[in-house]
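ok new one. same drill as before - C-alpha cells go in, u give me an amino acid for every spot. 419 of them this time. try not to just spam alanines like last time pls lmao
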C-alpha cells in the first residue's frame, strides 16, 4: 500500500493510499475547523454547518445529493469533532470522481437556504435534547467542560440551545469564510484510488481558492474541577479525567497502553476487580484520548447510589496500585490489543482515509504503520509503571450525574489517589 501526498499552490493537501485489489474507496474532505476553533459566541456553529452540508448547494438539491450517491450504491456522511469537520463518502472505485464532485460541491457551494436553516435548527435542538436525556453521553460533555473550564476545548460540540437558536445565515457564511481556507483542508482518499486523477480533479475544484493564513486557536490547558448534578435516576454516572499526553508527546503510546491495561476490556484490572470480583457495576472502562496539544485518561462507570462510594475509592486504589505492580503480562496483553485493533481497523478503506487525514493534520506527514507498531512495541512495563505513578499527581476532573449526593468529592478522591 502506497501513501502519496500532493500540496496545491494554495495550500490544500491531497493524500491518498492505494489498496491494491480493493474494488471500493473512501474519499472526503477533512477541515481543521471544529469545536475548538469557535469563538464563545460561535459555540455549536461548526456542527450546525455540518448539518447544512446535505441540505443543498447551488447545483444540487438535498434530494439530488442523496440520489447521486445512492444511485451507485454509495454512502455519504459527515461529522464534527473538537478539531475537525469531515465530509466523506464510500463508493465503488469507478465512482470516486463523482463522489468527490459531490463532496467538493457541498464544501464549496452550500446554498444555506433560510427554510433549510430553520429545519436543521429544529433538528439540532432535538439532538441537544436527546443528549441531555442520555446520562452516559451528557456526563462526558460535563467532564470535558470541567477539565478545560472557560476554554474552547471544553465547550460542547453541539453548542447551547440559546446559541443554536440564534445562528443566522450570515453566521454560517462567516464561519466558512474564517475557517475553510484551503490550507485548512485535506482531501483524503483510500482504497481503489488513482492519486494523479484525484489531484487533477482537486485542482479543478479547489485550485481557484485563494491561499490565506490559517487562523489560530486557543491552546488547551487542563484545569480540572468538579460538576455534580444530583437527579433521581436509576444509577449514578461517574466519569473522571486525568491530564494526559497529546499526540505529539513521547508518552502518548504509554498512556494508551496504560488505559487499555486498566480498563480496555474484560481482562482489564478495573473490569476484573470492580465488576467481576465485587459486582459493583455492569460496565466500567478506561480510555486514553489525545488531541494536537492535550490528552486525557478517562474512567467511566455507572452504579447504584449505595455502591458509588465503594466504586470510586476502589478505582483510585487500583490506579494507585498500578504504579507498583503492573505486570509484564498485562502490558503485553495491552500492546497486543492495541496493535490488533489498529491493524484490523486498517483493513477498511474508510479507516485508512480517516487515518491519513488525521495524521497529516497532526504531524504534517503520514506515519507508516510499521513505525507506529514499533513505537507500541517499545513501551515497557517500567514505562507504564512510571506513567501510572505520575498520573496519581496529575490534574484531575470529576463529573457525576444521578443520585450522587453521597459520592466522594474531587478533593477526597485526589487525596485517596495520592495518599
Amino acid at each position: 500500500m502506497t501513501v502519496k501526498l500532493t500540496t496545491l499552490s494554495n495550500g490544500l493537501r491531497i493524500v491518498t493510499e492505494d489498496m491494491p485489489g480493493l474494488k471500493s474507496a473512501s474519499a472526503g474532505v477533512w477541515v481543521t475547523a471544529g469545536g475548538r476553533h469557535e469563538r464563545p459566541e460561535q459555540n455549536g456553529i461548526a456542527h450546525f454547518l455540518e448539518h447544512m452540508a446535505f441540505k443543498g448547494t447551488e447545483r444540487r438539491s438535498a434530494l439530488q445529493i442523496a440520489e447521486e450517491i445512492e444511485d451507485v450504491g454509495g454512502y455519504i456522511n459527515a461529522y464534527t469533532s473538537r478539531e475537525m469537520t469531515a465530509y466523506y463518502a464510500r463508493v465503488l472505485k469507478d465512482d470516486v470522481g463523482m463522489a468527490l464532485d459531490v463532496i467538493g460541491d457541498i464544501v464549496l457551494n452550500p446554498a444555506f437556504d433560510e427554510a433549510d436553516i430553520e429545519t436543521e435548527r429544529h433538528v439540532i435542538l432535538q439532538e441537544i435534547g436527546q443528549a441531555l436525556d442520555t446520562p452516559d453521553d451528557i456526563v462526558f460533555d460535563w467532564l470535558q467542560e470541567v477539565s478545560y473550564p472557560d476554554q474552547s476545548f471544553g465547550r460542547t460540540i453541539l453548542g447551547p440551545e440559546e446559541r443554536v437558536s440564534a445562528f443566522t445565515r450570515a453566521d454560517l457564511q462567516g464561519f466558512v469564510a474564517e475557517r475553510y481556507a484551503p490550507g485548512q483542508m485535506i482531501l483524503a482518499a483510500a482504497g481503489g484510488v488513482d492519486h494523479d486523477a484525484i489531484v487533477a480533479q482537486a485542482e479543478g475544484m479547489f485550485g481557484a481558492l485563494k491561499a490565506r493564513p490559517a487562523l489560530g486557536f486557543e491552546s488547551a490547558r487542563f484545569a480540572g474541577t468538579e460538576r455534580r448534578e444530583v437527579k433521581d435516576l436509576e444509577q449514578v454516572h461517574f466519569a473522571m479525567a486525568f491530564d494526559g499526553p497529546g499526540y505529539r508527546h513521547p508518552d502518548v503510546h504509554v498512556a494508551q497502553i496504560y488505559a487499555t491495561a486498566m480498563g480496555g476490556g474484560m481482562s482489564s484490572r478495573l473490569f476484573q476487580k470492580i465488576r467481576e470480583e465485587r459486582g459493583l457495576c455492569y460496565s466500567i472502562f478506561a480510555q486514553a484520548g489525545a488531541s494536537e496539544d492535550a490528552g486525557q485518561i478517562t474512567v467511566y462507570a455507572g452504579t447504584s447510589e449505595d455502591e458509588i462510594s465503594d466504586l470510586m475509592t476502589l478505582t483510585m486504589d487500583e490506579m494507585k496500585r498500578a504504579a507498583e505492580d503492573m505486570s509484564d503480562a498485562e502490558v503485553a496483553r495491552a500492546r497486543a490489543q492495541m496493535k490488533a485493533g489498529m491493524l484490523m481497523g486498517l483493513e477498511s478503506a474508510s479507516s485508512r482515509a480517516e487515518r491519513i487525514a488525521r495524521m497529516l493534520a497532526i504531524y504534517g506527514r503520514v506515519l507508516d504503520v510499521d513505525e507506529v507498531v514499533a513505537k507500541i512495541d517499545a513501551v515497557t512495563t517500567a514505562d507504564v509503571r512510571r506513567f501510572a505513578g505520575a498520573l496519581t499527581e496529575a490534574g484531575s476532573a470529576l463529573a457525576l450525574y444521578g443520585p450522587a449526593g453521597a459520592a466522594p468529592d474531587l478533593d477526597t478522591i485526589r487525596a485517596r489517589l495520592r495518599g
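The chain is about 45% helix and 20% strand. and btw The first strand starts at residue 2 and ends at 7.
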